[in-house]
Write a structure and sequence with these properties.
This protein has 53 residues and is mostly helical. The chain has a domain of 26 residues. The protein is 42% helix and 0% strand. The chain contains 1 helix and no strands. The model has no long low-confidence stretch (mean pLDDT 80).
Length: 53
Amino acid sequence: MANDQMRLPSGQGGLMRFDESTSKIKISPGAVIILCLLVILIILLLHYFGKTV
């Protein structure tokens, strides 16, 4: 039974290499959090005021 299993190659020991791409747009993590909070606030306001129509 144990000999019937297929063995896969190790593939460089599980190490992966990622090339860092450079982008012209640089956004700090704090700015991303603030933008997310603003979007959430806008959605909540739209839900609140949209029900009165």
